[in-house]
Amino acid sequence: MKRTMPAAIAAATALALVLAGCGGEDEPTDPNAPVTITLAGWSLSTTPEFKTLADGFHATHPNVTVELKEYDTTNYDTQMTADLAAGTAPDVYVMKNLKNFYTYQNGGQLLDVSSATSGLSGVSSVAAYQVDGKAYAVPYRQDSWVLFYNKDLFAKAKVNPPDGSWTWDDYATAAKALTTGLKVAGAKATGTYQHVFQSTVQGFALAQTPDADLLSGDFSYLKPYYQRSLDLQAAGAQPTFGTANTNKLTYQAQFGKQQSAMLLMGTWYIATLLKQRTTGDADTFEWGIAPAPQFDKSTTGTSATPVTFGDPTGLGINPKASKAKQDAAKQFLTYVASEDAGKALAGIGITPAQVTDAVTQTLFGLQGVPQDDLSRFAYAKHTIKPENPVSKHTAGLQNLLNETHSAILSDSTPLDKAITDAQARAKNEVLNQ
Amino acid sequence: MTTTDLYRPTPAITLPGQRPPRRHAASRARRIAGYVTLALAAAALLLPFYWMVVASLKTNNDVFTIPIKWVPDPLVWRNYLDIWQRSDMTTWLGNTLLLSVVVTTLQVLTGSFAAYGFARVRFPGRNLLFLAYIGTIAVPWQSYMIPQFILMSKLHLSNTLWSIIAIQAFGAFGVFLMKQFYETIPEELSESARVDGLTEFGIYRRIMLPLSRPALASLALITFVTTWNDYVGPLIYLRSPELRTIQLGLNTFISQYNAEYALIMTGSVLSVLPVAVIFLLGQRYFVEGIATTGLKG
Amino acid sequence: MATMLRTRPRHRRLVVRNTVAGWTFILPNFIGFAALTLIPVVVLFYMAFTNWNVFGVADWVGTANFRRMWNDASFWTALRNTLYYTVFHIPLTMAAALGLALLLNRKLRGVAFFRTVAFFPYITSIVAIAVVWNQLFSPEYGPVNAFLRGLGADNPPGWTTSADWSMPAVIIVGTWRYMGYYMLLFLAGLQTIPAQLYEAAQIDGATPWQRFVNVTLPGLRHTTFFVTVMLTIESFKVFDLILVMTDGGPGQSTLVLSQYIYQKGFEENQFGYASAISIVLFAICFGITVIQFMVNKRRNS
């Protein structure tokens, strides 16, 4: 059998062996020797955060140069998976969300960086990257979902703007009132815009509903949230899911061009909106941010802490990097979650992992950011729950819930049946694996 | 459209002189109707391209609107300036052109060469080997691209233009296509050539190649366009900015939280035009009788 | 698949000579093909029997992946949808491509322009195609439904926003996109039909339809076979068009096997399972191809 093995199979077996295991190499270390570490990033010309972090770190650690490697934005994880599998990945790379963090961590592609997190006790999202008490990545930004609203359109429709006390029912009432009011005033904008992402419904439902648990496979917590979305689109208070999908509506145009008076979105949109106002892609109007509407009254009002969601964005270290690079990379990771890095990031409109008073000060000092107290409150105070709990089943569950999302909002499947189907599929296709 | 219009495949039977004169007016009316139909069909086929052009003349947030705006207002010519100033369009086009030309040349050469072996030389295991070629077409690339990428990385070919050439140039497609066309050429032609003392290579070079020009043209056009528009291949294999192809380059206008659709469409329009020109030049090989004239006598 | 092995020495010499000649022709292509395609494909076959996670773990699990597939409702949905797409896409594209080729294989003013236009859907950016077709199909605002309402349809389909109509919509766009591509192949094939055959048929007084059936179709046999095989395989592997048009939705109504493979592999990091599904997809395509080969062979002889 062995002797007649065709060459292709022999070569394939050799390759399979290569695939099955690769090792790194070690070099002697000197903490002050010049060292260059590579960092993965994307769209470098329009995404300044990577360069901000690299330059900020180099200023305090002149012997370490952080070199950026550019990846494709939409297919970052595909490219990174290929690079990690072939051993050609950079020394430090980004976890776009917690779903992929699990894949990399579980695949042995992340170095234990617990030592880098020891001084970061004030950063709550550090915990998101801990597995069995060890940290495998460090967060540098922590966006959260808030309510963007157009003050001009509220005034035009003669509807009271959000005051921090809104539950989802208040939000729905306002959206309908805005739509009617705007029509009376002769504007064709809708009360609100719900983007096609599954997060716009499921993220809030999971974060805010008491005892909701993605991994339980019981998705009944989604029902009231979907019911409200269906009502709003049936009432014409927001473009339907079908319309948004078939017309590839962008939330930037919907809100920025004043097509909708409200928008639930992550805080990353602040930087985009500011930029689009200067380039003329967005209109110039009075806007503000408010806390996301709440599950019930217990978390509303500016004396309570509103609950919202968002995955941190973190950096991890490639275990195949040499010892010297690993050490330098760990220092870099400690830096990216620090207040210094936070202020630098806030200076370009980004929400860092640690929102301190100084960070809020910096962000609200930017040209064009609203100055009202509610916006500051919404930005600085909230409980942020992760959208993707770290687990082997998360990616599979989120994929099937994404299909459920489009089935419900396109009116293809009645709500109750869609949830029952999703629960059955979760049980039979994901949780049993 | 009548059946006569549809199934009149070669011009040999439509010589105007052979027509009885009384049918002249009817045939003219039919011809005009035919052109109108063609023009309407052309409009339907070009609609997305038209939308691309319109989108390239809009500001970014005007690209997607409800309802769709078919006429840009205001006209934004700036995108066509911006794309050259703000990006490496020249590099992207250069890389894409280089890849397309090299891959097309290699694919046509090796494909037509190998096809001759499959079509005209009988040897044991031939059909089995051919099935292996076809079989690999049936495997979705996204499922074996990681093993392939690892292999290429071990060969230090990833992140070079060579990687794209290597994975595109030796495909089974060209072999299969050319084999099918060689089989339409009568066996007697090569037999008599053999009697005249031509070697197998001579037969390939002197008889098969000249007779399969339409097939070579379609293989070349298809390979060129596929390489030109390939996105996933370069996405997996190329990382360095200076190696980007046009499709990869255009994707850099998409960032995490925003996408510059107007610029993407500007670039897409610019990237379609060279392909259209190549096609316009290449399609003249699909004219009557190139293959058939050689068969006379 | 009969081998040509004979016992007599003269034949044996011929066989050896032919084998050398055959391999000489095939080798330049085969080296590249074997190294870059065949080996990774063989690896894939191995990985289908492992729990490969792409990062080094690949433990042998026997047929576990295939047993899991048997009970995986989503896999069956994806398979059903793929068949749905294939069954309609193949004949429609075939007919459209052949029709276009016949129409544009004539002396016609501007034929070069029309041929280029017919090929345009294949070279237009797929994103633009998805955007425009989605907007054309838009239930409330789209021209397609406006037209249908004009014809008197009270309740026109929801197209890409409806689970029942999303697949027909994708099939229409798929046919629209690929017909120019296959037209090109038919155009090349039409050039191999000797003009004398048409002249002879003309003299015999054959009607256009008879000429089509008795001259064109038999003359195109080799091309038609190629197109059928390629079209079958490409339909079974349909991926990017669906991804940009509907992303498999609404619900799972347009989820196809290629997309499911990508989901399981790259999104859920179950490359072993994804490999096993690829093998099944391969087996279906390959089985049909072999049948097509055998039918073709019988027809040829």
UniProtKB/TrEMBL annotation, chain A:
Q: Which InterPro entries match?
A: Bact_solute-bd_prot1 (IPR050490), SBP (IPR006059)
Range of residues in the leader sequence: 1-20
Where can this protein be found?
Answer: Cell envelope
**Keywords tagged on the record:** Signal, Transport
Q: What is its main location?
A: other
Asked whether the UniProt record includes Transport among its keywords, one would answer yes
Q: Which GO terms describe its cellular component?
A: cell envelope
Which Gene3D superfamilies does this one have?
A: Periplasmic binding protein-like II (3.40.190.10)
Q: Which Pfam families match?
A: SBP_bac_1
The UniProt family comment states:
Belongs to the bacterial solute-binding protein 1 family.
Q: What is this protein called?
A: Sugar ABC transporter substrate-binding protein
- Organism of this sequence: Phytohabitans suffuscus
TrEMBL record, chain B:
What keyword terms does UniProt attach to this protein?
Answer: ATP-binding, Cell membrane, Membrane, Nucleotide-binding, Transmembrane, Transmembrane helix, Transport
GO biological process annotations for this chain's record? transmembrane transport
The family database entries (SUPFAM superfamilies) matched by this protein are listed as: MetI-like
Q: Name one GO cellular component term.
A: plasma membrane
Q: Where in the cell is it found?
A: Cell membrane
Q: Which residues cross the membrane?
A: 32-53, 97-116, 128-147, 159-178, 215-238, 258-281
Q: Which domain of life is it from?
A: Bacteria
**Topology relative to the membrane, per the entry?**
Multi-pass membrane protein
Q: Which GO terms describe its molecular function?
A: ATP binding
ABC transmembrane type-1 domain: which residues?
93-282
**What is stated as this protein's family in its record?**
Belongs to the binding-protein-dependent transport system permease family.
Q: What is this protein called?
A: Sugar ABC transporter ATP-binding protein
High-level lineage: Bacteria, Bacillati, Actinomycetota, Actinomycetes, Micromonosporales
UniProtKB/TrEMBL annotation, chain C:
Top-level taxon of the source organism = Bacteria
Q: Which UniProt key words apply to this protein?
A: Cell membrane, Membrane, Transmembrane, Transmembrane helix, Transport
Q: Which InterPro entries does UniProt cross-reference here?
A: ABC_transporter_permease, MetI-like, MetI-like_sf
Record Pfam families: BPD_transp_1
Primary subcellular site in the record, as a coarse category: membrane
Q: Which PANTHER family match?
A: ABC TRANSPORTER PERMEASE PROTEIN, INNER MEMBRANE ABC TRANSPORTER PERMEASE PROTEIN YCJO
Record protein name field:
ABC transporter permease
Q: Which organism is it from?
A: Phytohabitans suffuscus
